[in-house]
Write a structure and sequence with these properties.
14% helix, 2 helices, 7-stranded mixed beta barrel, mainly beta, 189 residues
Length: 189
């Protein structure tokens, strides 16, 4: 008996312009609890949703808060190396607030503001899964200029190539068509 393939989960996309960048840093150590020291750096990007999958068009033009962080913990006796693994959290698309959060590798996090200041990055593209009550799992984030994002989407639309072949290492799932558009177009450790 032939095994049937599971259908690929549906994916959605949004593209947001980056309008503002803010930094914060936090470190703590709770010796009385015998807990390791830990730190967290956060970059808060504020922007506006310029493109979004047709299903979520009511969020077009809304502001979005994008929280990007990196964290580490340090064992006092150095029995273990510092922790701090990247992972994607969720995207919230609600009528009163749109936001996303992800933990990135420290070197990438500290480099982002420099690339934004130089104009190399002006937009963020987020891919996300099916939403439930306004919340969805983030599947990928891509930081680039709008012309670079469009160049990649045109390459994908023109021929069946993987996203890696189109200029970035991304999921092999096909890109949804943007039916809705809006507007015009760190320190290393």
């Amino acid at each position: 008996m032939a095994r049937t393939k599971k259908p690929q989960p549906e994916q959605f996309e949004l593209v947001a312009t980056i309008e503002k960048v803010e930094h914060s840093y936090y470190i703590s150590e709770y010796r009385h609890l015998d807990a390791p020291a830990g730190d967290e750096a956060i970059i808060e990007l504020t922007g506006r949703i310029e493109q979004i999958s047709p299903r979520h068009k009511k969020h077009l033009g809304k502001p979005i808060e994008m929280s990007l962080a990196c964290e580490r913990s340090f064992d006092r006796e150095e029995r273990k190396p510092p922790s701090g693994h990247p992972f994607l959290l969720n995207l919230n698309l609600r009528k009163d607030c749109c936001s996303l959060m992800a933990y990135l590798p420290a070197d990438a996090l500290w480099e982002l503001p420099k690339m934004i200041d130089r104009g190399a990055i002006t937009h963020l593209e987020a891919r996300f899964g099916e939403s439930w009550r306004g919340s969805a799992d983030l599947l990928s984030l891509h930081f680039a200029s709008l012309p670079k994002l469009r160049e990649i989407e045109e390459a994908l639309a023109g021929k069946q190539v993987s996203r890696a072949d189109a200029g970035r290492n991304r999921s092999p799932w096909p890109s949804p068509h943007y039916g809705v558009q809006h507007g015009s177009g760190c320190r290393s450790e």
